[in-house]
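Model it.
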Amino acid sequence: MFHGLISSVGHGGHLGMRYRGHGDSWVELELPYAESLIGDVDTGVIASGPIISLMDSATSLSVWTAIGAFRPQVTLDLRVDYMRPATPGKTVVGRGECYKVTRSMAFVRGIAHDGDPADPVAHVAGTFIRIENFLG
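Modeled.
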């Protein structure tokens, strides 16, 4: 279900995101390198926006794997710490993990890398509001 959700609809589909795998509380997506994603034509480096979108999607989906259901939620905060530019020509992998869920919040973290998780492009940490409990 993740594959169809990510690669065919909305912003993720437009960017070319693809599903890689998931577990009980984590999801991995990939963002294949494409000229349309380049932010600096002189270097060929992917712009920050698509990487932020990749990580927002991976962490959001990790909440759904953690709770075992698709439920409405909203990104409240997503802090992105860039460690280095993504290597031109390489696919960026985003792994999001949901490490704590409460009645109204979900807490996430993750990394983006382009081949070596020990050499990340970015770290992320964030929170999602689980709005189903507020809809009545």
